[in-house]
User: What shape does this take?
Amino acid sequence: MSTYIDRTAPGAGEEGAPPPDELLAMAFADGELSPEERLAFEQRMVREEGLARLVSEHMALDVLARRVAPKEPQDHEWERLRLNPLFVGTRSSGWALLALGSVTTLALTVFGVATNESLSIPTRVGILGALLGFLLLFLTVAARRLRTMPLDPYRHVER
Amino acid sequence: MLIVTTNELFGSEIAETLGLVRGTTVRSRHLGSSLIGFMKGLVGGEVHEYTKIVAEAREEAIDRMKADALALGADAVVGFRFATSEVAASAAEVVAYGTAVRLRSNAESS
Assistant: This one.
């Protein structure tokens, strides 16, 4: 994907040609910018979320282009199984039951600790605080991952 | 950028050795994939969830090494190698490294 891009060429950014920012993103992903241009582009990426997304899309294409995994016989069988109603049903039910059971167990644990009068109030506050802290930290990390996942060009690599 | 495991580039001449370049990453799968991977491990066969995590880490490490080489103004990386180690359960650490070189251009050769 290391195609030379003439950013000064007439027509760049006009109708039919990629917009200048997209050309810059492609050049950045391919490492074709000069150190000064690269630094300026990196500073723009900090401010403009759309630019980071453009670069990520071009990097993902680059990664996939050099690592296209050929289909293997078992891939076709996995695909058939994935569409099989029995497989879909058991898989979905399994995940739903696991999620429901985990949430219920957590809720019962919190309720059990909160209402357990054999534990002193400081102990209960400590346990519930630790559980709440863990939950908040987990939610923070999960939210960050969900936010940055579209910018991760490697998540489509299969093998 | 050309990346080769050999110490020389046949058909090209190395004009300058720029030094070590490397890229490192540690990637993990989410809880759901780890759970399915664990279950596949019980029944045998390829654990695709773990294959995928290693492949993702490998590609990311290569790209970081390439960025390192580009920053030095390199044309190629010779003596390329991978190294792996385990830093956490269900996580893949990959280090990609090699020697960045600048190739002699046609103008320099003539």
